[in-house]
Design brief:
The complex is a heterodimer of chains A (291) and B (340).
Chain A: H1 2-33, H2 40-55, H3 61-84, H4 92-114, E1 129-132, E2 135-138, H5 139-161, H6 163-173, H7 175-180, H8 185-211, H9 218-232, H10 237-257, H11 263-277
Antiparallel strand pairs in A: 1-2
Helix pairs in contact in A: 1-5, 1-8, 1-9, 1-10, 2-3, 2-4, 2-8, 2-9, 3-8, 5-6, 5-8, 6-8, 9-10, 9-11, 10-11
Chain B: H1 3-12, H2 23-26, H3 35-45, H4 48-51, H5 55-81, H6 88-104, H7 110-132, H8 139-157, H9 159-162, E1 175-176, E2 179-180, H10 184-207, H11 209-219, H12 221-226, H13 231-257, H14 267-280, H15 285-301, H16 306-323, H17 327-338
Antiparallel strand pairs in B: 1-2
The chains are: A mainly alpha (291), B mainly alpha (340).
Chain lengths: 291, 340
């Protein structure tokens, strides 16, 4: 019994770490633009698909992961320059629609270039599972938790202690005041998209050994990441982590103890519940328009 | 007459002078401004069953009319409330399954399915709009995505009711006095009438006092609120109406196709509808006609290049959003002004 519990907990934490990364990416773009970034999930998908495509030719999964993550980060920067930067009068609605278009294009290009078949590659360790007592743990789950944790720590340091990180925070707090002190909002937006894509790419590259990846999985992953962001309070960076982990655990335990048929419905039910009960999420500030 | 109603009247009438308000701005009219074009278009459509070379063309026109209702109602939400809904295929499905199940499992007439589907769509939209529209920003987009995703799981898993992934079989067609409208050229008339009714209803709504406040709302929400417009309520009512219209489209789809299956109502199709609204022209009534035309014609002409269909849609959407946000309908307006 406790064995199952611990196993589920670790599985939940690992999938939750993925959601946390996606939610983090979501939040970065949301804070800078006010837009819901529908391309976030596609970057996750790309991370997995590109790693899979190069895992054989680079003859090392680790190398392929690094390569894919860098490529996805560059795709994020490039996307911003190509489709967000040229928008003449940006507002959250137009930008959200733009990211919908971006998501469709990203998904189609991946489908045309890399095909429709599910792809995957072996985990980062040679052994697939380790057992401690009666608990059997997939090593990739541990890798996911470790890599996600590392990235989150790096992001924390970036936002707290580096100049570009502080500039990004300034932009999201007050774009006009930030511009007044000489921060270039256009460059910062490019950086935000790059970081969001990087977070997505890492999530995709580390989750694929467990779940495989196809070109059409991006949307679902993105939406679950958004649910996590909502749960933690949208725009709230630490909230994204807590929200992601909570959602991962809820989903894993829910699909084990309730029904695996309704697994995908769980995170969306959580999303709707949060919207009904506490739209600001667990840590966010409420922003309700008084009727 | 208080000051505020005088002000409202004055802003309502075009070029109205105080005391000499044009009657048309006050008197209720059967048809909204700008409906003449739609009437003409629908009159032209009458010819379709007679000139179409085969029933397949008629069936495409039927589908066009169904999608027209769907896209026009989504356009109402996006163009006039300034909100993004990504659950429109879900409301469409809610209507289709409500009407289909009532007919196939309970033997209810398809004609009764139509209002039932409208009710189902409206109820769904109301329940989602209630919490999501209260929030500032684009929470509706995500709430509707979640709603649509849950609906899809339900369509797939509630097998005794919906038939699951295999779809719902045994849906009957519309009947008039014992005559079953089970061919494309017969059912065309139902679609013709219902779609005309829907588009005129939307045109009237947009031209009404409520429509004007909606437009104010879409342009500047704070400004609208400061003029005393209850923005939350307006948005909720409009969204509910759009849900009802999508439900009607769903019922039509069920009784024309005589079969429904979950994948027609996926989030991905909601996204596709959104693309069509953007391409056609957000907030422009003719945009829905153009959008519905694109969603029917482009896949037909790209049969051999189906993989490139979405790439083309995606790129077209980006180009439209960046270069001419008024969409294709907006482009026409622009050209007309340019050549004058």
């Amino acid at each position: 019994m406790t064995g199952t519990f611990v196993q589920l907990l670790i599985a939940g934490l690992s999938i939750g770490s993925i959601y946390a990364l996606v939610a983090l990416g979501f939040n970065i773009v949301f804070k800078c633009t006010g837009a819901m970034n529908f391309a976030q999930g596609e970057w996750v998908m790309m991370g997995g698909m590109i790693t899979a495509a190069f895992a054989v030719s680079l003859s090392s999964v680790g190398l392929a992961v690094v390569f894919a993550v860098v490529v996805v980060g560059m795709i994020g920067v490039l996307s911003e320059r190509l489709v967000v930067w040229p928008v003449r009068r940006p507002n959250p609605m137009i930008l959200t629609l733009i990211t919908v278009g971006l998501a469709i294009v990203s998904r189609s290009v991946v489908m045309i270039v890399l095909g429709k078949l599910p792809t995957g590659y072996s985990g980062f360790s040679s052994a697939d599972v380790v057992s401690v007592g009666d608990v059997v743990i997939q090593t990739q789950s541990l890798w996911i938790i470790a890599v996600a944790l590392l990235f989150l720590v790096v992001m924390h340091i970036f936002f707290e202690y580096t100049v570009p990180g502080k500039a990004l925070r300034a932009i999201s707090a007050d774009p006009e005041a930030a511009a007044l002190v000489g921060i270039r909002s256009s460059q910062m937006l490019m950086l935000a998209f790059g970081l969001a894509a990087l977070a997505g790419g890492i999530a995709g590259a580390i989750v694929t050994p467990l779940t495989l990846m196809t070109y059409d999985q991006g949307a679902t992953l993105g939406f679950k990441g958004f649910s996590a962001a909502m749960l933690g309070g949208i725009g709230n960076l630490p909230g994204a982590v807590i929200g992601g982990l909570t959602l991962g655990i809820l989903e894993t335990f829910g699909s084990y103890y309730v029904s695996s048929h309704f697994k995908d419905a769980i995170s969306f039910a959580v999303l709707l519940l949060i919207l009904f009960v506490r739209p600001a999420g667990m840590f966010g500030k409420p922003e309700i328009v008084k009727a | 007459m208080t000051d505020s109603t005088a002000y409202a009247r004055e802003t309502a009438g075009q070029g109205a002078v105080p005391g000499g308000l044009p009657r048309s701005a006050v008197e209720p009219r059967l048809l909204a401004r700008g409906s003449e074009g739609f009437l003409l278009f629908w009159l032209m459509l009458i010819a379709v069953p007679f000139v179409a070379p085969n029933l397949y063309i008629v069936s495409l026109v039927n589908l066009f009319l169904i999608y027209l209702i769907l896209i026009a109602s989504l356009n109402l939400v996006m163009g006039y409330c300034g909100q993004i809904s990504l659950g429109h295929a879900g409301f469409f499905g809610l209507g289709a399954y409500a009407s289909g199940i009532l007919n196939a499992k309970l033997g209810l007439s398809a004609w009764l399915g139509l209002p039932a589907a409208a009710l189902a769509g409206a109820l769904g939209a109301f329940l989602i709009g209630l919490p999501a529209l209260r929030l500032k920003g684009h929470y509706l987009a995500m709430a509707t995505v979640g709603f649509n995703a849950i609906l899809l799981v339900l369509f797939n898993e509630l097998i005794p009711l919906t038939g699951g992934p295999n779809g719902l079989l045994g849906i009957g067609s519309f009947e008039i006095g014992g005559l079953s409208l089970n061919t494309d050229d017969r059912v065309f008339w139902v679609l013709w009438a219902v779609s005309l009714f829907c588009i005129l209803a939307i045109a009237n709504l947009v031209d009404s006092r409520m429509g004007r406040s909606l437009r104010a709302l879409g342009d500047a929400e704070r400004g609208a609120a400061s003029l005393g417009i209850d923005t939350y309520r307006q948005k909720l009512v409009t969204f509910t109406i759009a849900g009802a219209l999508a439900g009607i489209a769903g019922s039509l789809y069920a009784h024309v196709n005589l079969y429904v299956s979950p994948e027609t109502f996926s989030v991905w199709n909601s996204i596709l509808l959104l693309v069509m609204v953007a391409l056609g022209g957000t907030g422009r009534l003719w945009g829905a006609v153009i959008g519905a035309f694109i969603i029917i014609v482009v896949p037909q002409s790209l049969l051999d290049y189906a993989d490139y269909e979405f790439l083309i849609f995606g790129v077209a959407m980006l180009v439209v959003l960046i270069a001419f946000p008024g969409g294709i309908a907006g482009l026409f307006t622009f050209l007309r002004r340019w050549f004058r």
